[in-house]
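Subject: sequence -> structure tokens, single chain

Hey, anyone have a minute? Need the predicted structure for the following. Not urgent.
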Amino acid sequence: MSPLLRTAAAYAWRILVVGGLVYAVFAILGRFHELGVAVFLGLVITAMLRPVVDLLARRLPRPLAVAIALIGSILVVLGTLALVGQAVAGERAGLQREFGAGLHRIERWLEGPPFRLNPDALNDLQSRIGQFLSSHRSTLISTAISGGRRLVEVLTALALALFSSVFFMQSGDRQWSWFCAQLPESVQDRVALAGRAGWQTFTGYTHGIVLVAATNAVLVGVALFALGVPLAVPLALLEFFAAFIPLIGSPVALAVAAVVALAAKGPVIAAVVIALIVIIGQIEGHLLHPIVMSWAVQLHPVVVALSVIGGAIAAGVVGAVVAVPLVSVIWSAREALRRAREGDPA
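Reply:
Had a minute. Here:
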């Protein structure tokens, strides 16, 4: 067998093993997605609050430090949501007028060049939408009920995540040491090494992606506020959460902002928002994400894109969010084991 073919075969079976492992993880997440989401969120909360807990624990008992950090973060989140709700409620009356006028502007714009749509077609479209809503009222009601049930599931997963994070922050090191001690002695050191490397990568990625999301949200919020686009604060919050899906989340959120700008302020402001999409995309792709990946591991953009798309296919939005940190953790664990093997004098 030629050296080239032998090398290709060696890499092929490794890729198949990693691919099978990733598929198995996503299959388990799909089967027990509520439990998987809760554990993942618990790890994210732990990665974000563990430095604060360690700092407070220097002067306070660790259980008290955990309680202060967790309750303080919950208050910050609730305060942010209250601010968003207040902003939406304060702009509700003006939004109704602006969107009403904006829809008429869009209709006139579609009736003019280069589209030249028939006004009767637009009126017919509105009537068809009304007929659809009337004829599918029961379906919409059942969908709303299903959405309420989904909300209960989300709240349950969030409660389990907070419950898990308390124990992760309080005694996560002891829990990991206990787990490693249950394994055969021949693999304990390697599993411990891979776990430490994976956790370091996960923590770095989490801190970095939160920095990217917060930076994007601030840039979007300031720009939309300066342009006079309504719902600037909720759209900035949407941008924050969308940034957790690398490469595609931020453009989707900014596209929503462009639609709002088109309806409320017309095509000129919408064009400016679209230009903003391009600028923020360049900042995120060439400045922010390289910083994030340098904190975690160096993943090629193609690997990131394939991970996001593969995760979305396997487990929907949850898979798209989890895919990149999961691949990063697996790769960093593999690199740590490889370096340890190469440094072993045996």
